[in-house]
Structure formats: C-alpha cells, structure tokens
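I am going through a labmate's work and have reached the protein record below. What it holds is a sequence and that sequence's fold in token form. Please read both lines and tell me whether the tokens look consistent with the sequence. Do not assume that whoever made the record got everything right. Thanks in advance; the entry in question is below.
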Amino acid sequence: MKKAFLIFFFTHFFFAQQNNQLWKGYFSYNEIVDVEAASNAIFAATENAIFTQEITNANLSIYNAITGLKPDVITTIHRSEAFNKTFVGNNNGLILIQNSDGSVTTKVDVITEVPVPPNKKRINDFYEFNGRLYVATDYGISVIDITTTEFISTYFIGTAGEETEVLQTTVLNNEIYAVTRSFGIRKASLDNPNLFDFNQWQTFDTDFWTGIVTFNNQLVASNTNSRTYRYDGGLFQEILNHAQVGLKLKTNGTELVVTTQSSVHVLNQSLTVVANVTQIPDFNVQFTAASVVAGIIYIGTQKEGLFSTSLANPTIFNAISPNGPLQNYTFRLKKTPNKIWAIHGDYDEEYNPYPLDELGLSVFDNENGWINKPYDELLGAKSLSDIAFNPARPNQVYVTSYFSGMLKFQDDTVELLNNTNTGPNGLESLVLSGNPSYVDVRINSPAFDRQGNLWVTNGFVNRSIKVLRANGQWQSYDLSGITANLATGRYNAMAIDKNNTKWIPAYNDGVVAFNENYNNKFIVINRNNADIPAAVVNCLAIDNRNQLWIGTMSGLRVLSSVDRFISETELQVFPIIIQEGDLAQELFFQQPILDIAVDGANRKWVSIADGGVFLVSSNGQQTIYRFTKNNAPLPSNNVVDIEIDGVSGEVFFATDKGIVSFLGTSTKPSDNLADVFVYPNPVRPNFIGTVKISGLTDRANVKITDIEGNLVHETTSAGGTIEWDTTAFGKYKVTSGVYMIFVTSQDGMDTTVKKVMIIR
C-alpha cells in the first residue's frame, strides 16, 4: 500500500492530545493468551490488554491502551514480585514493562536492534533468575537487567550459531536450559561469560519438546508426544500422559500446571495429580493457560474468558473476566439511542464470507454493560455483516448475515428472515449450477428511509435491491442491464438521501444510485463515465450540505449535490485538492478508504487501511486530527467502521483489535436553546480537559465573561457543542470564580444564560 499521503500531512496535523480522559475503551477480555501467578494476585492477558485480580479482596484492575499499555499482539506475560514489575511480550518483539508506579516503559530493542527478520521476533516466554530476565524468542534468547530494564546480551543458540525458536527457558544448579523448536534442549553454564558464543552451548537432549520448568529442584519438561517428564539426573521419566500436546507448562513453586487445549492438570510436589479439569459446565471451552494461587486454579480459555475454581474441589467455576463484548475483532458497530450493537462476523475484500463465522453479537447499555448473545441463540445465522435500527422503534434492530439472510430483533424475540419466509419478492439465495437445493442468502447494506421502509442489498442475484415496506410487504428491484457485474453483484453499506435516493457502493461497479419514485431511475457512477479512481467503492457518506463523499480502494471523490440525481442522467465527481505551500495535492491520493462518517459540525472522519483515522474539516481543506496507534489509544490502525453518537458527540472506532471511542464535541445542533448544558461544572483543580457547552443551535453565538462582565471567550458554534479551554482568549488560565455564559441563536430570536464555576 502506498504511503505518499504521510509525507504531506505530517506538516499539517494537529495531533491528538495525549489526554486519555477523552477516550473510552470497549475491549473484550474473553480471549486469554496467558495466565500468570503472583503470591496474592492472578494476572491474565488477552492480545491487547492485561487484567489482574487480588486474591484477598477480589479487586479487579484493567490495563489497556486507554490506561497507557499499548501492545501490538500480546503473546506472554511475567510478573516479577521481587521488582514489582510486569513484563508483557508481543509477537513483534515489543516488550512493555509496567512499573511499580503504574507507568509503562516501552522497549523496542528487539524490534530495532536484533538483526533478524521481523517475523522472527516473537516473544515466547520470560524466565526470571538472579535479577535477570531471560527472554525466549523466535530467534534465540535475550537477557534483560530487571533493575535497569536494559538489555544485556542476545544468544543465538542454534548448533551452528543460527537463530532458532526458543520456546521456554529455566535454570537449575546455575545452568540454563532452553527448549528449542529444532535442536532439542540446549544448555550452558551461567558462570560462563561468553554465552553469546554458540560454541559454549551444548545439546542436552535431541528430542522434541514444548516447555521446561524447574520444579522441586528438578527439571520437568513437556514433549510433543503429549507427555510430561521429570529428569532424574540420567533419564527423563514420564509423570503425566495428557493425550494432547501441551500448550503451557507453569509452576508457582508449590504446584505444577500442565495446560492442553482440552485439559488442565495440577500436580503437587510429589508429582501426583491433585486436579484435572476437562470441562467448564455450560461452556464449550478450549483452554489456553492456567496457574494456581493460594489454592485456587485460574484457567484461561480461547473465547470464554478467565475462570477460577477450587484446587481441592474443582467442580464450581466462577467467570472473572471483566465485562466486555464477545471478542475484540469487530466488523460493524451501530449506536442506537440507548445501546451499542457490535457484530464480529465478516467477509473479505472480495465479499467472500468463507470460512463461515459462527459467532454471536454484543450489545452494550449503561445499566447492564455488555450482554453477549451467543451463536446458538441466533437461529444459525452465520457471518453477520451489518446492523440497522428502526428510528421509529429503536428496540427493533435488524442484523444482516452474508450467508443466512437477516435477523430481526424485537425486544426479547429474534426472527430469521431468508428465502423461505419472505415471499416471492423477498430475500433470495444464490443459485449453484447442479445444486438447486443450495441455500446461500447474502444480505447486506441495511438502511431505513424516512417512511420507515427497510432497504437491503441481496448479493449474487439479479433483483439485488430489496425493501421491506413499513406495512410488512417485500418488494424487489432488478439491476439487469444496469451493472456490468450483475451475476456476481456485491454491495456495501448504502446511504439514503433526503429525496429517498439510494446510493450503493458496488464491488467492481462503482456507485449505483436508485430512486423508485422517479420511474425506477438508475444512475451508475463508475470508471467508464466518471472520475472514480477505483472500480471498488468501499463506503459512502452524505454530509449536511447534501454532498456525497465516496471512499474507494484508491482514493476519495465527492459529488457536489445528491439533488443532481433528480435532473441529470450522468453524474460527475471530483477530488478534493488541498494546498501545502506551492504544492497542490489530492486529499487521500490513492489511499484505500475503509469508512467515512460525518459529525454534527459536518466534519468528516475518514479511516484508511492500516493508516488510522483522520478528522478533516467540512470541506476537507484542513486536517484537524490524525489518530494512530502511536499517538492515540487506538488498538489497531485498521479502523473498519466509524459510528458517531449525534447526541453526545462520542465517536466510536471499531477495529480488528477492539473498540475505542473519542469523546468528540461535534454533536448535532438542537432546534432551540432550551436544553443548553455545561459540563463539567464545577471545574475542579485536578481536571484536565475543556469545558463543553452542549445543546446549542447551529451557528449560535457564545460569549463567556467573568462575574464583572469582562469578556474572556467568544465563539460561534458549528453543530451542537463548543469547547472552552478555560483561558482568556488562549493567553492565560482564568482565575477561580463564577463565569457567565451568554448564548444567542444565529437569528437573535432565542437566548439563554448559564453559569460555570472554576476552582483553581
């Protein structure tokens, strides 16, 4: 993917404030990758967060991008109680260290300094010994001084000095043992100052192993033959047959824990099995890691979170993961007046839903948090693709499936709509030659018009535009002769304008515009008849000035007015040209645009594949923010969906690694000034941020004075909210006191007065 736009924009950005009070995280804590024991706490890691629970008081703490912990993909964790630090290893070699004061140290030494390919830098395990941390990686072993957190050395321990995957290390009698992927167990003496020389290492055993620990003053290792052994000084002796290859081998000094995909075995110091967990009632689980703390087994699972159970009687299980959505990968998100709906199914860039996803969906409200609806409650609907809610009945929500039709949620009921129950003008299955009984109903693009009709697209059929009328009747519209790729027609999320024209992004066909009220009129905007930079259009947005913004796989185009559809037969689009000094450049030139959303001030939020999110002014001439993993709590630079709460101004970003939101200020304008609201109020000394004045009409005049009438701030609203940084025209912070806020509508016919108290 080309990166030309970065060179231009770096001189133009106003980067995001490093103030995480402006951000919220909506992460899942169900996909556990590691579990680590401490003396009075348990630590668990997902791919992008850590949470810990204290044993004595059950306090739960969460560390993620919002709190300053910004991983890539977590692979392993280690808790050093001696130094009160937590080490977090990632698949790209990144090491994060959470210090005793809560700060996070980011170490990129492996990424930048170790001379091996990027795909060889995964961190597999940490082992602590005598103030040093031995880091097992896909290239060998690196050593960190825990006190200074500085790297000491790196060992390439292949038999010829080459890099080799080291899965786990341990120390016994001052000798270090390393389980490698290709060369068995290698060992060396820690008294040897030249361990960077591979000749100082010898092969201890040539078999194939997955893990090794020191337990009760002896070596214990798991083999790829699905057995675990102890070393008696001369031979490896089997102590456990666990039927599957071991995933994690851990010890807390008192217990030994062997975790496989379907079992957790706990052994005591006599190497006797004292607990064997093979299932968790009411859950279909795959185990990932486990540890024991104070007589409690903590078990991580692949999709269901962290569970605890008594070591003495492992029959009753408690789910202890923090509340969150079903999983972090989120494909679409929709904000209804009182809830957030998130789906996790998907299709690829070519709209291929295979392999089919059998995933549930996630619903959030402020009262109950996240409530996850599992797949077995969704009537077999696979590969969920998009969401729409009925504006007249917000508790009526439709979720499309790109294989099974469409789900209708009404209060506590769910119904599956497909080709069998929507009549001859309803949803259709694609037809496979020679297999007339095959059912594959690919529905997408749900959107309600102003009359309460629900429009969708039906992929791979001729009558690919469907509508469920408000009276319950289905109707279909045929695209035969309209698009070039009718037989394989695939369509993304549509936008419906004030004239009831449907604007539909089409794979390899540009934009299809349709309005049944004008004699079933169609207009296609594609590379053959307009300046569309790519055949694949990913997204559309209609702004507050009735312009159509078009995001393609290779750049941005704008239609000056959607009203042109009514009177014209061909539509031209244009790029946005921005000036930087003497250089004129096309906005988002050749960039793959994933989504566009319009906020209350008519500004555009634009996500770029692997490029984060931009906020540009209403005309695109000014870049206000660019958010990426580097300067914001985004868990990923792939933001696949943007959703804006027009009431609060909160902007939601659904990514392939979780959901976060930015507390924006561009809310929809109000009709009058009856509900103007100031927050926070009072402004206390420890507050970091700005005062928001919301509930404004568009273009309202806002004046702020001190109690004596001296003007300290004046602005005009764009949308429903403005911010005040509590300074006198940006020069200095105002002093403690009560400040008056005078608001007047643009026409001068409506006014209101509010107060805010500032305490320094």
About this structure: Residues 4-9 form the longest helix (6 residues).
